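Q: Could you predict the 3D structure of TetR/AcrR family transcriptional regulator?
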Amino acid sequence: MPVTKVFPKDVDRKLSDVFTRFGYDGASMELLSQATGLKKASLYHRFPGGKKDMAAHVLKKVEIWFLENVQFVIEQENLPVEERLQIALLGISNLFEDGARNCSLRMLSACSETPYFQSSIASCFTILSESFTKIAVENGMDERMAKTKGMQAIVNIQGSLVISRAMNDNDIFKTSIAAIPQLLGFPEKKSVK
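A: Sure. Here are the predicted C-alpha cells for TetR/AcrR family transcriptional regulator:
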C-alpha cells in the first residue's frame, strides 16, 4: 500500500477540528489519529507530550491567527478605523464559520488541563481585547470606557457562539458581530428598505 503524505498544515487543521468539536477531554488519541491520518506513534513523534502538546500547538496556531488577522489588521493606520474593524470582524466571522463552529479557546478552557493552557488562552483574549480597545480609542472613546467595551465585544462573540450552537441559529452570532461597531462607538448603520 502506498504511503500517503501528510502535510503539517492539514495536521494542524484536523487537530484543531477535533479539539474544537470534542474538547480536550473528549479528544481521544484514536480520534486524533483518525482525523489526521497519522498513526499514534507518528503523532507522538511530532508531539512527544501527547495530547497536551497537540492542544498547546493548536492554541499557538489560534494565537498566531489572532495576531495576523485581528491585531495586525487593527494596527494598519493607513486604513480608515471603521474599515480595519470591519476587516477584523469579517475574519472572526470566517474563523467561526458565521457561528457554526465552536471556539477552540472555549473548548480548551473547560477541561481537565485548563491550568496548563490558561496563559495561551488568556493571550488570545488579550489580543482581541487590546485590538477592540484600540479601535474604540481611535474612534474617540475614553480609554477606560474603551477597555470595558472591548471586553464586552469578546463576551458578545463568545456568548453568541454558545447560544448559536445551542439554539442551532447562526443568526444570533451574526447579529452579535454586526452590533460590535456600534458597541465600540460607531454610529448605527441604517438599513436600506
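Q: Anything worth pointing out?
A: The domain at 56-183 is CATH 1.10.357.10 (Tetracycline Repressor; domain 2).
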